[in-house]
Structure formats: C-alpha cells, structure tokens
Design goal:
Elements: H1 2-16, H2 19-28, H3 30-41, H4 49-79, H5 84-93, H6 96-109, H7 114-126, H8 131-143, H9 146-156, H10 158-182, H11 190-197, H12 208-238
C-alpha cells in the first residue's frame, strides 16, 4: 500500500514537471507565437485589420488561459490544506465596507490588467470570497494600475495622478459595496454555489499527492465549466 502511494506521488510529480517549462515557454513567447501563426504560417499581410485582430485574439487567448490554469492550480493546491470555510467566516465577520475597501486596495497593489485579473476573480469566487469584495478587486486591479499612475505623474504631475488613483479606488470600493449589499450570490452558477456551500472535508494529513491532485482537479473542473464564456469574451474583445 505504501508503495502504491509513493508511486502516486511520483506519478503526479512527473506529470506536472514537464508541463512547467511548456507553460513558461508558451507564456513568454505568446506574442511571437501569434505573429508566427498569422504572418508566417498563414502569410497574412502585416498591419491589416484582420491580421491585427487575429494576432490579438491568439495572444490574449494564450495569456488568459495560461494565467487561469496557473492561478486555479495554485488555489486548488492551497485549498487542500487551507481552511476555506474559516477564512470565509472571518471575511464575513468583518464590517462590509472595510472588507470591501481592503479588497480594492489589494487590487491596486496587484499588477494585473483586466484579462489577468479574471483568473484571480474566478478563484476568489470559487473559494467563497463574497461577491462584492471580488468585484472591488476586479475593478481596482486594472483601473488603478501602477503603470498608469507613473505615466500620469510624468505627463501631468503627481497631483493629477493622485486624483486619478483616489477616484479609481473610490469607484471600485463603491461598486463592490453596492454589489455586496444587493446580495447577488444567488445568481452565481450552480456548480460554484455548490462548492461555496459545501463543508470542507477534514484532511487526513499533508501529502504531496493530495496537494497536486487538488490542483489538477480544480483546473479540470473550473476550465471545463468556464472555457466557452472566456473564449466568447476574447472573441468579442478581438472584434
């Protein structure tokens, strides 16, 4: 029996190891991959509207799905030994406005565009974070971007940059608070509601196998349910 468990651990480890360099190469060279496919493989003219649209689509498609896989895998591993229900209870015990403001501030500190913030947004919802807080993060992360603040400060001065940052954070916190007060969690997909409401199973002990298996299961489960909606969003964005 011990030999079987060791083989399972080794099997999961060996399964993940070759995927890591593939993920890194795809993410790092996503722009070159899209350019090669459009301009070399399909011989489309550079600078054309269709060429630019398809290049944007392929690049964004790779970026979102690779980030989604990474974030969900990490959150799935964490969830195998992290007390999700206790964490959600602590968040719910906090006053709603301060908790929403904290989520917005966290969004400001994370260097994500709207595409990159979506995987984290889904993971937060899946782990039971209240909907209003997740929206506060989702709005603040791309809106109050540190790159934008630095550019505004350089072009128009620090005062304008601070006004923009405060206004963007106000919009994110206010929107998240309003969404939270509306109690819209009931409109989430049924599979996500089931997960958020289920009681966490007590772990029989920490093991590499259970952690990696939790990550793989989470990726397969979430991707299988959300890929079509994300693909539709990328197509609309490209168009």
């Amino acid at each position: 029996m011990k030999l079987t468990k060791q083989n399972q651990v080794a099997g999961n480890t060996y399964r993940i190891m070759p995927i890591i360099p593939v993920w890194l190469l795809l993410f790092y060279f996503k722009d070159k991959i899209s350019g090669f496919l459009i301009y070399n493989l399909f011989s489309m003219p550079e600078g054309g509207k269709l060429s630019l649209t398809l290049t944007f689509f392929i690049t964004t498609f790779l970026k979102i799905y690779l980030l989604l896989i990474f974030v969900i895998f990490v959150m799935g591993m964490v969830r195998t030994f992290f007390p999700v229900q206790k964490t959600r209870k602590k968040l719910m015990d906090l006053p709603e406005l301060p908790a929403t403001a904290m989520a917005g501030l966290f969004g400001v500190l994370t260097p994500f565009c709207s595409c990159s913030a979506v995987p984290l947004f889904i993971s937060f919802l899946e782990t039971g974070v209240p909907l209003g807080m997740t929206f506060s993060f989702l709005i603040a992360s791309p809106l109050v971007n540190e790159v934008i603040i630095v550019m505004l400060a350089g072009l128009f001065g620090l005062k304008i940059a601070l006004i923009y940052a405060i206004a963007g954070l106000f919009v994110a916190i206010t929107s998240g608070y309003i969404i939270g007060r509306l109690r819209l969690e009931k409109y989430l997909p049924e599979w996500m509601l089931n997960f958020r409401n289920e009681k966490q199973v007590k772990s029989s002990g920490f093991s590499i196998d259970s952690v990696i298996s939790g990550g793989i299961t989470a990726v397969v489960d979430v991707i299988s349910r959300t890929w079509a909606y994300i693909l539709a969003g990328v197509i609309i964005g490209a168009a």
